[in-house]
Predict the structure.
Amino acid sequence: MDAHIHVWEFALFNHFTDLEKCANLEELVETLKAKPVEGWVIGVRFNQERLAEKTIPDRALLDKAFGPRPAVVVRTCLHLAVANTAAMDRLGVFSRDGVFREAAVASLLRKLVDGLDLDRRRILAEGLRELKNMGAEWVIDMGMDRQKRSLFDGLEGEVRVDFYTVDPALLDEALGLKIFLDGGLGARTAALTREYADDPGNYGVLNFTDGALLSLVERAHRKGKPIAVHAIGDRAVDQFLRAVGQSRHPLDRLEHVQYAREDQLEALAELEIPVCIQPIFSREISWARHRLGPERMKTAYAWGLMRDKGIRLLAGSDAPVEHVDPREAAAVVAGLEGAQHLGYEEVLDLFTRANREFYGG
């Protein structure tokens, strides 16, 4: 059971060009050219940290490489995308350097999919079959909206799909409300209390004021629904703790938590708030240390420390942000030491027993 996945995006990204293994910008461009989609070049799962240049391709680079052919590149975290001039003209969006972040990425992707003549039901069905073949019996989608919801009708036989929604209008049907408090470390938009070690002056972004967040939380709780809250940086975790200190549902859960301070982990344990971790995210440690610095890395990606503090852990892949197979995640974390270590069987137990017990399955 995968307790945190984006099913439609997982299926859709399988339809576009995978840039994960590109070693440099030249290879990225050639990979994109090899698989056009209806006259567009669209690449996903890009990560600049894996390129020799360690740089994000910008509008100028994509313009030079593709000219009048529209091109879009989406970072693996889904918090950053790049478009060339032709793509921006077609989509009716604009950024001076072609780089889009956070909510602007979701808007760009919606416009992109709407503009392509895609068989969305077929794409989704293929994605669900892939999940089933991998061994998934039950998944929880973490970003359902009304447009995506209609695609799932009649496809439930492949894999059981429950969902949290970003749309309050779907709350009656949903398990609960999904709320994004901050961005991601890869895009340097995760909210930190101290500036990024490799980007002085940047503290990341909080998407809500405390008042706006509490209003959303209370709206879900009044309907008897819990919240599932995306928080990657410690400033976002602080904001989550302030909100649940004023309004609480017993099934409220916190998502990701790549970096939290030790006092925050102790507070989560004391409040008995479960954390849904993505063990596969530990592959980020090699570059995350440049974002956070050595001191903060002591409690970053600290799944083992969370367990030792008594936090109830759930597990998800966050696919398509990362690979969906829990065995791959288990192998990554089992090879780590100290606070960041969980045993191979421990991780598989999270994806089976722990997730099912939390949802009564």
Summary: The domain at 175-358 is CATH 3.20.20.140 (TIM Barrel). The chain has a mean pLDDT of 96.
